[in-house]
Amino acid sequence: MSVPHLNLDPEAQRAIRSAQDYLLSIQKEDGHWCGELEGDTILESEYILAMHFMGKTEDPRVRKAANNLRQQQADHGGWSIYPGGPAEVSASAKAYFVLKLVGDDPESPHMQRARRKILDLGGLDACNSFTKLYLSIFGQYEWKNAPAVPPEIILLPRWFYFNIYEMSSWSRAIVVPLSMIWALKPHCPVPAHAQIPELRGGRAVPAKTGLWGAFFQAVDRGLKILEKLPVKPTRQIALKAAERWVLERLDGSHGLGAIFPPIVNTIIGLRAMGYPLDHPVIQDQYKELQRLTIEEGDTLRVQPCFSPVWDTAISVNALAESGLPEDHPRLQKAARWMMSRRGHDAGDWKIKLKDGRSQAPGWFFEYANPYYPDCDTTSQVLTALSKVRLSEGAEEAERIQAIYEGHVWHVSMQNKDGGWGAFDKDCDKEILCHVPFADHNAMIDPSTSDLTARGLETLAHMGHGPEYPPARMAIEFLRREQESDGSWYGRWGCNYLYGTWLSLWGLRYIGVEMAGEWRDRAVTWLRECQNDDGGFGELPLSYDDPMLKGRGPSSPSQTAWALMGLCAAGDERSEAAQRAVDYLVRNQHDDGSWAEESWTGTGFPSVFYLRYHLYSNYFPLLALATWSKARRGEAATPLVAETA
């Protein structure tokens, strides 16, 4: 296939053609893309525990998941939450427990090494809240020492400072069924050989301090005292409300929130409520759990969710920017598929819209998650749809209408500080991060630089400029968020390379003049991050130690981000940009793909990371196309001013 109207350097042109061919070759028959979304071994551990809870410990898939756990044990003896990372105590304790459960000898070398590392990290008492609650179900931790998650929180009115809609959407989906579990305290016995008293003790871990931390610890103690009362007048009301809340959000969804932890919590929570194993709801959730598994030979791994709408939108953007015409049949097929993946107008997102307006929502991330459209996916779908033309008539009118409605929804979700969060509006009460069960580092969903920058890109494609009030607010937010060295923090991708690329990208798209001291600092920072091989890389460790920001082995996706950041800043003719292009061209495989082992996606900073298997393919294609256009002085021009 040819690249129309592009006058590229020969090697870059070849790389673009080859990358286009590869991306088109893996498009699904119905028009979408979906790459594997890889998480850490906590998923396999909790999968095995869920299977044991359902009486399926002898299922061959349990053995395969255990094989994967053994293979993922690191040289330090524990399990990490990303390849090459330090041992993480919760991941390690759960892996050790389930390996004992499936019959591994605790005196075997790999189990001895694991035990020593877990004790060195503080043992069971150092594990996070969700791990302690899970271990309590199986009799390996005391409920009284796990944090309280009372179901009565669902009864708190929306005007109350702390209510479930002040939590992030993913926390809400995890916590509501978890509150049923905490209240009912189901017990699932394990064989004597699987008990883990040997993980008690270990190095003492300092308790969290601070005024609000102490306050919520006192609240936790008070709740546990109240729990001992023989009569709890609101308990059954709260449990029924939690049950109803969960069941409502299962309608039309691939599990609660369409993500792994709420699916498992729903199974356990509803079983605790008395649902039999053969109940249709339990069976449906069990099927959704199995859909997330990937069996490969004698191993099984579990995905946290699927990413089809996200992968499809970015693939369309990359293909369109690299030269596919707007009426290309493959792009049209993808556009039709995306248009069928809109959210529900009664989703949780509506709760915090002060005017209570009735409107069509944006797009969700997974195959079916209508209650939870998100701003990031919506912005990418809108940008993608703006680059495609469908056949004349009703179908094209439907595309224009979808863009308009999605744009209205996206703008309505802008936070009061000018930025965008992911799923909810103004979900930013930092005090709630001190709640004892909030140690997953994702209790709230505040504005972030990366989502705000994508919002600016989308506003540009809707025909707006920097003086449009929502754009002006977003620009001011990004200016405030830039760090002293010129970089921006990346919440949803690792890390400062992601945030810096997108911030420069969004500002350039919306029409901000890329000049001045702030721009120079950003370019200098990016150039200084470049590795000797011309590529760029950053490890998740930078979330824990900002001194490591922008540092790590080169990867195709992060090199692409840095290259696009340089291009957005007008630095496309620099030696740094050329070396990044050379890195991408040099490391492309013969079939047009790129491979990377790095985990460059972020779920919860410092807690959960992701490897999007398609990041290493569509981002380099988009970067090479962006660089080629920039070299010719050609910007990626918004195409849908008529929808503004």
How would you summarize the topology of this molecule?
Layout lengths: L9 H16 L11 E2 L3 H12 L6 H13 L16 H13 L7 H12 L8 H9 L31 H16 L26 H17 L7 H16 L9 H13 L7 H12 L1 E4 L2 E4 L5 H14 L7 H11 L35 H11 L8 H19 L36 H13 L7 H13 L14 H15 L6 H13 L26 H13 L6 H12 L14 E4 L3 E5 L2 H17 L13
Antiparallel strand pairs: 1-5, 2-3, 4-5
Helix pairs in contact: 1-22, 2-3, 2-4, 2-10, 4-5, 7-9, 7-10, 10-11, 12-13, 12-14, 12-22, 14-15, 14-16, 16-17, 16-18, 18-20, 20-21, 20-22
Can you tell me about this structure?
The structure is a single chain. The chain is mainly α and 644 residues long. It folds into two domains: 10-38 and 306-413 and 448-643, Glycosyltransferase; 42-302, Glycosyltransferase (Alpha/alpha barrel), CATH 1.50.10.20. 47% of the residues lie in helices and 3% in strands. The chain contains 22 helices and five strands. The chain has helices spanning 10-25, 42-53, 60-72, 89-101, 109-120, 129-137, 169-184, 211-227, 235-250, 260-272, 280-291, 308-321, 329-339, 375-385, 394-412, 449-461, 469-481, 496-510, 517-529, 556-568, 575-586, 615-631, and strands spanning 37-38, 293-296, 299-302, 601-604, 608-612. The strands form two sheets. It has a three-stranded antiparallel beta sheet with strand order 1-5-4, with no helix packed on it. The protein has a two-stranded antiparallel sheet with strand order 2-3. The longest helix has 19 residues, at 394-412. It is globular.
